[in-house]
Write a structure and sequence with these properties.
alpha+beta; four-stranded antiparallel β-sheet; 13 strands; 331 residues
């Protein structure tokens, strides 16, 4: 069984998330070839793959409507990630043996330095870097459920042209998680006033007390937008929670007058530190179920009416958070 930086075992599901998100070593069903398409309605021929680079669909909860779509690339032989490239994505519906082109996007490359925090016996908390992880992000508006594909073309950061590669993925009628426009759950989490030490509810190296002074329920019914980070720098299997929380803190420092900011650890730290701890899954915060989350980290933007305006999972940048907050403020 895999273990996190504390040496404690991870749950089966957590281990699977680690492999899929941090290492990007699981491979989706793919096709390849040299066929071109001229525009929506054209056919993309789905032929066997013949490429040294393989794509990974990182997004795990895709449904009809607007979706944040994240794809990663790895070299087939070495397993090394291909980051910082210039990609073009052509989305097609697998309504035939091949597929019908529906729309195209140019994703933004994102690169994040993974990190984790470690508490020494003397209580000192240190943050350690753990290499880089990267992917490519865009938004995709799917109009039909079923099997879809995306043709990935473009070039690497070194200028090497990519052979067309075509992973397939499923689009659901409705997300198994919360959707944009849904009312935010009125969750009540442990606050700073409920504990003797902020370290009991926040594993950040430099926790910000003001992020623990308001319950989610109070924040999302306050009449102001709310930014919520559900992330654990210390127990994050993907090791991107630390950077996501750092970006969340940066946004707080820049925009705390514009919105409420709430940070919640996805695991019960008292449970993790207790004698009966076995897996992180056993110590999950009830908020994970209330918000229907199967991974972390997540950042949610809730509008002034208390409805979810944006949801960002996994690799998230400061620019994405800020743009989502601006949209919520302008709505």
């Amino acid at each position: 069984m895999l273990s996190n930086v504390t040496g404690r075992p991870l749950s089966t599901r957590a281990a699977a998330l680690t492999l899929a998100l941090a290492a990007l070593l699981a491979v989706a069903a793919c096709g390849g070839g040299d066929d071109d398409s001229d525009g929506p309605g054209e056919t993309i021929i789905h032929t066997p793959i013949d490429s040294d680079i393989l794509p990974i669909i990182v997004s795990s909860d895709l449904a009809i409507g607007d979706n944040r779509f994240v794809v990663g690339l790895i070299e087939q032989e070495s397993g090394e990630q291909v980051i910082g490239g210039d990609l073009h994505l052509a989305f097609y519906l697998m309504d035939t043996n091949d597929g019908t082109l529906k729309f195209e996007r140019d994703p933004e490359p994102i690169i994040v330095t993974k990190s984790y925090t470690h508490t020494h016996p003397d209580g000192v908390i240190e943050t350690h870097e753990a290499g880089t992880v990267g992917a490519y992000v865009t938004h995709a508006d799917f109009d039909e459920a079923g099997l879809w594909g995306v043709e990935v073309t473009g070039s690497t950061a070194e200028g090497t042209d990519l052979e067309p590669i075509r992973p397939t993925f499923s689009v659901l009628e409705k997300s198994f998680g919360l959707n944009i426009g849904d009312p935010a759950p009125r969750s009540v989490q442990t606050l700073l006033s409920d504990v003797a030490d902020i370290k009991e509810i926040d594993t950040s190296q430099d926790p910000i007390p003001q992020q623990h002074n308001m319950t989610i329920a109070d924040a999302v019914t306050s009449g102001r937008p709310t930014v919520i980070a559900i992330a654990t720098p210390a127990f994050c299997e993907s090791q991107v929670c630390g950077p996501t929380k750092d970006y969340f803190d940066d946004l707080y420092n820049e925009r705390k007058d514009d919105a409420n900011f709430v940070h919640v650890e996805p695991y019960d730290l008292a449970c993790i530190n207790g004698p009966d701890f076995e897996t992180l899954y056993d110590c999950r915060n009830p908020i994970l179920d209330e918000w229907r989350l199967q991974s972390e980290p997540w950042v949610f933007i809730v509008d002034a009416d208390g409805n979810i305006a944006a949801k960002l999972d996994g690799l998230v940048t400061l620019e994405e958070m800020e743009a989502a907050l601006d949209d919520a403020l302008e709505a």
